[in-house]
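Journal club prep, notes for RB
We'll compare a predicted complex against what the paper describes. Inputs for the heme C case:
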Amino acid sequence: MKGLASLFLGIFGTFAFSWVGLTVIPNWQIGHLNPQSDEEGTDIYPQPQSGMAERGARVYAANGCIYCHSQQLRADYAANDIERKWGDRRSAPRDYIFDRPVFLGKMRMGQDLANIGARAPKEQESAPPGGAAAVAASPSPATSPVKAPAASSASPAPKAPTSPAPVGASASPPSAAATAAAGSPAASPSPAGAPWPVQTAGEPPIYSTAWHHVHLYSPRSINVDSNMPSYRFLYQNRRISDARSADALQLTGSDAPPEGWEIVPTFDAKCLVAYLMSLNQSHPLKDVRSAEGAPAAPAPAAGSPPPASPK
Ligand code: HEC
């Protein structure tokens, strides 16, 4: 009977000890982080996202994207994430202070998405509110900055990727890749070491809003070997009333709708893409070293941190 009290205390102590170590101390260390800013209080990072991006995060959760995609870059000593050009620096707790829930993820069937917005073509990059607005409110084709020219031209030349190309891009010049893909769409899409998505003729610029829609609608139209499920239920197939909608997907081949029909994103799809475009951890953080091992510059030119790391 005498041992009962100490047994109980021992069990209680074990739980209390781990609770302190795993919950209280981490919460005390990183539970109340604020956005960082420079001396003048400008150049604040991170910032809360637009309502569309917030809703897009819920669409992301509802569709299980987290089961195949992480949103965290591991440090150089632990992994090759930075070498894979998924970002310039590792992720840090401060990157996530406005995310509820945080989609860290631990499976990588597909690439890490922590910086997918930073990989967007220059004109759409790091402007999630503008990007979202451009997607949301574009009743006339003239107001759609990127889609209009892309839709009207069939030649691959002007669509050579302007973004920092993904994994292993330096292995093959993008123009050659584009030409090869254009010449033989059935050819082996991604030999080891080649960039994952290859810029194909007739496709929107890689990682643009329009590209994401085509990719979500039909991943295999972009990457023949893709294991990613298609999310067609986020899109609507409808008859063209007067003119083709500016939002209509630029689909080619067997995915293209029949004459007189168009496929347009639902509001959820637009929010999801607004969310993807908002994922951008390229801003330097004071407490994290960037790619070259030097501490990240505290604050470069306000407003426009280049995705490339400081020298
Ligand atoms: C069954 C696993 C799986 C699920 C679920 C999944 N993906 Fe993917 N995803 C992949 C694979 C594999 C790739 C690489 C091939 C490709 O580009 O299609 C990929 C690629 C991507 C890319 C391109 C990344 C890059 O760097 O090129 C984006 C963006 C993306 N997925 C977004 C999403 C979103 C958003 C969802 C949820 C609506 C989602 N994925 C759900 C497996 C998945």
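Talking point for the session: The pocket of heme C is lined by residues 60, 63-65, 67-69, 109-111, 113, 116, 166, 196-197, 212, 219, 223, 226-229, 231, 272, 276 (CB under 6 Å).
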